[in-house]
Amino acid sequence: MDIRTYNYKTEPYEHQTETLARSAHKNLYALFLEMGLGKSKILLDNAGILFEQGKITGLLIVTPKGNLRNWDTHEISKHLPDQIERNVLVWQPNHTQRWTQDYEKMVREDSDGVLNIFLVNVEAFATVKACKFVEEFLVTHDVMMAVDESTTIKNPKAKRTKHLIKLAPLADYRRILTGFPITKAPLDLYSQCYFLSPNLLGFSSYYAFSARYAITQARRMGAHSFQQIVGFQKLEELQESIKDFSIRKTKDECLDLPEKVYVKRYVELSDEQKKAYGTMKQKALMILEDEVFSTMNVLTQIMRLQQVVAGSLRNEEGETIVLKNNRVRTVIDLLEETTGKVVIFAVFQTDIQQLEKAIAEKFGKEAVASYYGKTPQDNRQKIIDKFQDPESELRYFISNPQTGGRGITLTEASTMIFYSNSYDLELRVQAEDRIHRIGQDKSCTYIDLVSKNTVDEKILQNLLSKVKISNEVLGEVRNWFK
Asked: Which end of the chain is less enclosed by CB atoms within 10 A, N or C?
């Protein structure tokens, strides 16, 4: 049994076959395939091949919490051949009697001829409790262990990263999957690759790796001195070092997908916003001057400014006040100009709620649905299914990138509006590819709402600089946020 004779449930694309040919029998491998190219299918095909060859009896998939349901209810049943009998268990921090029985069956009973699939959210690895259950699963079975969206373990100091790296040697096969392995800096690669093996990059510590590729300068802030990263070096060397254990594919080279078109729609601040923004900016500068410089307090002040630009303000009592603004009206205007379905991403919950209310008033309640933290779990898949139904009245899908930016397909839309953005490049890229993936047959348009001379422009500039660094390391040429 190999990739040529394997009974695929869904026929692979050429790039998927090529990826399997290079990786299927490797103990360690990184799938750096852009979102929408079917990394989940490749992993499940790989697991199916190894299972039928008698090389594994278990598959451990580590993924962000928001992706668990998609793996459980869609990916496994869609891509794993029916003839492969399987037990699938999703991690639960609060164990019911039924869950405990299912887990005991998976690790205690003889399960010859069954592929045992354990789905665990990456956040759970910050706890000792989850790690103990995972360790028992790993020592019970011959396991392929995969970290989906592996940038979630890029921080070498995080508990979940340390725990996963400690558990990794117990797995016979290890995979990392991400469409964008570098979201902030080339140093993002270290922990992801260390999970596969400590020796892959040739450095025994993160600090040695950083010293090789980061350019630093001594800085002083009050009584504190530190080394600040001001640039990067030897990126071609780093690019070469990852080629032996990874494959990189982009949609441009794999699929005849339509192009992406980027548009900016400028939004004038209301007088109320201008006043609040000026006051908030002055207050933020005073806070930063008085406090010891830290990334956290800078980001907090930026988020407050961004919230004002988006249309709301939190007062001293902790209440959120909606400011008079032109942003919601701009979205309504855009929707009136647009045919077909539209996906809207907003960072703040207040904005999602205001958008849903305004769109419902204009186009009717059946035309809009929100998908974010407060959306009941039981309703989420129903909303997606309804949105993907071309005959459905549901035309407008509103979400935040943390909830709706991963693991779902929204290809019935070809227009996406970013009501607001965050500094997280991975979230931005993931969100974009909800509509630009297999199944899309139209050109995709992305509209960024921007207020001039505000934090909006700074955020987009920051995202673009991260893209440029990523291009250098991955050897790509692409322009986003034109």
From this structure: C
